[in-house]
Amino acid sequence: MKNKFGKLVTATSFLALSAGFANAGTLDDISKSGELRACFDAGYMPFEMKAKNGKFIGFDIDLGKLMAKKMGVKYVPVNTAWDGIIPALLTGKCDIIMAGMTVNAKRNMRVNFADPYIVVGQSILLNPKHKDKVLSYKDLNSPEYTIAAKLGTSGEQAIKRMLSKASYNAFETQTDAALEVVNGKADAMIYDMPYISIYAAQSEGKTTAILEPFTYEPLGWAVKQGDPDILNFLNNFLRQTKGDGDYQRIYDKWFKSDTWLSQVQ
């Protein structure tokens, strides 16, 4: 009886210890390191950009800094090429992706997303010579048009799904894709509405834009799968931040003002 009881206690202790290891996740790692490491790909206005002084600024950056402050840890920016950003998360190079990432089924098979923190969609940056001819994305669905987009983005997916008759050129950065339109090498660029809006305003007549989004795209923070605690934290953080006005303050700074442009131009 004594031996059986001893074995039972040992087994119970082992299960409890195993459960403790299983429950250790991203929040525990952040707490122990004293850092919130956030992956992004700088250059996506106004979400994440590199300022002239070498620092990273933007909507996602400010939200990341606020999150780290609420956690009581240091915010650490991890600038990462877009095509390697999910592998960077999965291999532990960062704790979270805060990069204006569109929630979709393919990505959701590799990572978990918190509730969307903003909703955007795909818009059109257009060469001015087509201003009166192209009035919607449907008009671009023809072999006579060449469309540019950034490799691996939802803009690329939208082109392949909805504009399959047009010629498509992929680029490593959104800036390179936009320059194709400016230089007349592409008729249009498909990308997220905030970036298209800002770029068209800056281009001084070298481009025009059709800003009404033709897709529905929620953006979400991505974390490793199998960690419900970090998802619970992120959803509650977002709810609280929207409720107390901090979210709106940061949103207005980046989306309702252009004073920040002087920092990156």
UniProtKB/TrEMBL annotation:
<dbReference type="InterPro" id="IPR001638">
    <property type="entry name" value="Solute-binding_3/MltF_N"/>
</dbReference>
<dbReference type="InterPro" id="IPR001320">
    <property type="entry name" value="Iontro_rcpt_C"/>
</dbReference>
<feature type="domain" description="Solute-binding protein family 3/N-terminal">
    <location>
        <begin position="35"/>
        <end position="258"/>
    </location>
</feature>
<dbReference type="InterPro" id="IPR018313">
    <property type="entry name" value="SBP_3_CS"/>
</dbReference>
<comment type="similarity">
    <text>Belongs to the bacterial solute-binding protein 3 family.</text>
</comment>
<feature type="signal peptide">
    <location>
        <begin position="1"/>
        <end position="24"/>
    </location>
</feature>
<keyword id="KW-0732">Signal</keyword>
<dbReference type="Pfam" id="PF00497">
    <property type="entry name" value="SBP_bac_3"/>
</dbReference>
<protein>
    <submittedName>
        <fullName>Transporter substrate-binding domain-containing protein</fullName>
    </submittedName>
</protein>
<feature type="domain" description="Ionotropic glutamate receptor C-terminal">
    <location>
        <begin position="35"/>
        <end position="257"/>
    </location>
</feature>
